[in-house]
Amino acid sequence: MARNSEIQNVFEIADDSLQGVLGNHYYVMALYQQRERAKLLESLPQVAIPHTFSWIRYYDRADLINSLEPILEFVQSRQSLVAMVCVFEAALSSFVSHLASLGQEPRVDGELIGGDASYKRKIIWAHSRALTCDTGDKTAIDRLPGTFGIIDNARRLRNDIVHNRGFYGDRYETDAIRSESVVVDFDEEYQSQSRDAPCAIRLTTPRIVNFSRSHIEALHILHNEIQRHCFGHSEPYDYSKENKGIGWGRVFSGI
Fold it and tell me: Apex CA 213: angle with CA 253 and CA 119, to 5°?
């Protein structure tokens, strides 16, 4: 049987978007390595930046550069993580909504869930579905407990980046998904820091690569599982068989 085209479309959009996040991250970091201070100063707004439709804010270009340069990788990595999590969350919402509209009734612990369910709950659903996958990369399927632990760590980090000024919050540890089939993932920095003082989330490019691999790998397994068990298509998705290169123009602009 053929794949369900709506489900495949959700998968391909998310797959492209996740690759786009990583490609953009590499590009920004490459520009950073090749930076020339004089050209940076010339390219920035001269004395003020737009703030609202009514206001501007005066600023010092050199102060912006001096403040950002030492931590640019951390800042860019936070932004890449937030984008990655947003893409994956949107994909899970669309999967759940499409399956529900087709009468497939997505469930967690026996209860129906919809596209508006919490992201944590949708990750639990995705994990339970992915575990039943029997097509595609067997080693990737075997990695799922660790892979979804990393995905859940990204969820909690995203929450602290956007809701707690980039510091580990009290819920970073307590809100982790606890399951026999999920290996809980915590940042080494968090585990080594004293809980008596705020600890900033300091992500790096290798960490972003690891998060990217986890989200893309889980996305492929979940897509294969849905197509196999909901629509009877047993052939796993394969870039070469689909004749699909990365195609950066499509990834970044949709064209």
Answer: 80
Helical ranges in the chain per DSSP H: 5-33, 37-43, 61-68, 72-101, 119-130, 138-142, 144-163, 171-174, 188-192, 205-231, 248-253
How far apart are alpha carbons 40 and 61 in whole angstroms? 9
DSSP, collapsed to helix, strand or coil, labels residue 162 as helix
Q: Does the residue 30 lie in any domain?
A: yes
As given in the structure block, the two tokens for residue 188 are 């080494």
Domain boundaries, position 27: 5-236
* pLDDT per residue as tens digits for the range 116-156: 899 999 999 999 999 999 999 999 999 999 999 999 999 99
Residue 28 belongs to a domain = yes
Across 107-134, b (16+ Cβ under 10 Å) vs e yields: ebeeeebebebebebbbbbbbbbbeebe
CB 238 within 8 A of CB 224: no
The number of distinct structural domains making up the chain is 1
Residue 248 counted as domain residue: no
What count of other Cβ atoms lies within 10 Å of the Cβ of residue 229? 16
Sorted by sequence, the CB contacts under 8 Å of residue 67 that are 6+ apart come out as none
Is the entire prediction scored with pTM above 0.90? yes
**Residue 122 near residue 89, CB atoms below 8 Å:** yes
In a domain, 250, yes or no: no
